Prior knowledge:
1029 residues; Rossmann fold; eight-stranded mixed beta sheet; 52% helix
Amino acid sequence: MSTRLLADTDRIQSLLHAPTTLGKPNKRWHSAFVTIYCSRAILSFFQDPLPAKKDTDVSRSPSFILVDLNPDNRFKIDQKTLIQLIKEKSVDTLQNSGGVDGIASSLETDVDVGIRGDVQDIDRRREAFGSNTYKRPPTKSFFQFVVEAFKDLTIFILLGCAALSLAFGIKENGIKEGWYDGGSIFVAIFLVIAVTAISNFKQNRQFDKLSKVSNNIQVDVVRAGRRQQISVFEIVAGDVVCLKIGDQVPADGLFLDGHSLQVDESSMTGESDHVEVDQTHPFLVSGTKVADGYARMLVTSVGMNTTWGAMMSSISRDTNEQTPLQARLNKLTSSIGQVGLAVAFLVLVVLLVRYFTGNTEDENGNREFNGSKTKVDDIVNSVVGIVAAAVTIVVVAIPEGLPLAVTLTLAYSMKRMMGDHAMVRKLSACETMGSATTICTDKTGTLTLNQMKVTKFWLGKKAFTAGADSSIAPHIIRLVHEGVALNTTGSVYRPALESEIEFSGSPTEKAILSWAVLEQNMEIEQLKRSCTILYVEAFNSKKKRSGVLMRRNKDQTTHVHWKGAAEMILKMCSNYYDASGITKELDDDEKIKFEQIIQGMAASSLRCIAFAHKQVSEEENADDKAHKELKEDGLTLLGLVGIKDPCRPGVKKAVEDCQYAGVNIKMITGDNIFTATAIATECGILRPGHDVSGGAVVEGEEFRNYTPEERLEKVDNICVMARSSPFDKLLMVECLKQKGHVVAVTGDGTNDAPALKAADIGLSMGIQGTEVAKESSDIVILDDNFASVATVLRWGRCVYNNIQKFIQFQLTVNVAALVINFVAAISAGEVPLTAVQLLWVNLIMDTLGALALATEKPTKELMEKPPVGRTGPLITNIMWRNLLAQALYQIAILLTLQFKGETIFGVTKKVNETLIFNTFVLCQVFNEFNARKLEKKNVFEGIHRNKLFLGIIAITIVLQVVMVEFLKKFADTERLNWAQWGACIGAAAVSWPLAWIVKYIPVTERPFLSYLKMKKDTKDFHLDSISSK
């Protein structure tokens, strides 16, 4: 025994002298281990050993207990249980787990102060329950974009021609010389495909980045007793999240506390009815939307452990969304393509007929086809060359660069707009914004700063400016404090006695709370502890008020408190308190006096909020219905507060810019008519010429009560709509659209969603906007500033203008190339430009041209034109004038070179063909400058600011020199001397003065194509009249 004791003593000694470098948790485990070990060692010393039994298989229990020295990261509840709890929505299972409090305890969450929220705590929770992110489906690889580019039918035909040309060339001339024709077509095709695939791949990556930004929403959580905003991706299991109307539930969880919470689960279940969530049914599912009320929730599952996460991980973002402009361009491309096919087919027939009738000669002047004497290989090779030429004409004729130009300009604009505080959610909005004729804007936060401060307080008919006033009766102060502290969705947090108090909630709530706490010495926590809230009616934009039914714990009396728009609350009152606390009757004369006080504050651009109170009698209190319906009459007016929200600096200039650009600005606000009029005048929406009493300013109810005919008649004259509901906003949008306007609407609330969806362009607010509003919108204004709305309008016009520039540029090349090849094929039996040369021109036009013209930045002159509107033509008369003048010049100069070039310059046929090719390409380079300005005569204005344009022009010229001078066999060209280069440049440069002269020719407003349509309609009318006779 002594030996055993000695051994145990040695072990104890070794434990006691263990290293002291352990952390606090490990020290505690070490102490526990030592205590247990010592106890067992001493006990075993005094106990007799069990008698030995020979015939037994029972092994002796060990004389120690294994204790893990590493602290346990595990929680009392596992992930699987939590997932099943929300999935099954079983109240019984929840009760078996100890209810919501039991789950919170298992997740080590204090329901009042939240989780600790330090780095170790967050990491531990992420390790146990995962992060609030979901796996995204893999994005398309570059190879997939290459494959998509290969799917074009014309590319397939050209590849076939290139393969045949390569095979016959090698067979006839050997691999050393024979690969040039076919090989050069192959290289040209792959170059076109590579450029297309690279631009599409980069655009796809950009959309992915924007998608990540749009999904990164901010959420209110309580951690260590402090309410704070964090990214939705940072939420962990155990977090306490604050929810309000319009929020998206960020994870699966359980209802902790709140009032009137209704959730729209249609995104998950498909059911449109709202689900009420409370203590009896506390289950909240990720991805659903808060339709009404407010609450705090306990997060139980995050990320891939939620149904929403699993669902989102299987949905890939569709970046192939086709905008209306792209659809119109595809139609235009198709029409031009049909003309190109017809021309190519005629060229094919003419060339084949000329070849087989022996009217074509080779380079040595010998007939190419001599009936049966001609080898089959030679016939096939010639036919392949003719087919390749015809197919290449189709490639050049079809302006497939138009959709690419739209994609490039939209992608470029989206990136730039992010820098200008606008995040595009739907591509079509970029271009549609350029056509906007009317903008319906909110007031608060958009035209104003949303930095609210209480500047006036009226108690009875007496005004108080700032600070607590000793002349106010204490019980009135108490009632005002109750009305502020208990009837709010905001909160107050004081980290320490010396530190600054933090206020959270909506700007209005924060303004009232800060006034009550800092100026009226309100103790919010003390008030909340002294009362019990029985029922809450949450604020909504229709009623414009919120109410609370509460019981004082001290005397068990029940009271109703209302807060809301001053004139709304005034209508509910029959008495009012004066400063000394005496209740006075509120008759009609007194009401008029209070209305004048409200109007006076409103005229000073103040938002007026009223507080009212009523004590509920025991009989009324006994009725359970009282808990479901608050008293709305016979109230006593407590007081009025005036909240100042100054206009944003620069908003007046932005409004004037929009008005100068021909865009009407209408302000739609929930504020009263006097506040709305004052702000609208300050912002420049209402100008001295406007007749305020004659229909320029209306209230929502008045507009709602008009007949449909009256609304359509008066809607254009309305500049301000006050006391409007979201339904009134929707009604105005529908009216304006009926009248042919392209309407942009700003909105931030959940109830604005219908108007945002109905508008041509929905603009939601990034700071104050709810998630429902953002999802319903096309563009998110990240800084909530109207100046950013004006910037979006400028960018929209820029997108439209850039695309028009490119259309003019490309159609000029299409018309010129088609006419030249057709005339040359019919008259001379050959096309002047080879397949490789035409593919090179195609590359200059489609990709490099799109890059150069689609990346022009917005200019001031864009805001000097009237809006295009809904029916404006894509190709204007100005564009027809410019492109036809340039195309006719190019046709004239190139056909002259085709038929007289050898004589004029005294050169061989091969050099003349190079001159034609070089002049044609240089004409496009010079014409690219002309395309920069559709109307202005000075095409070089601001060119130094567009480095990309200058870079692309330089690259095009360098590559053209390489093609002509160094790639003789590849491009089928001959070297040119300095004089010939000078002649080519001189001929191409004529396009500059020509463009300047042409812009003096006036054009009619009526679209050019409408004349053709009118003639067709007239013809149809005559045919109909003849047939009727």
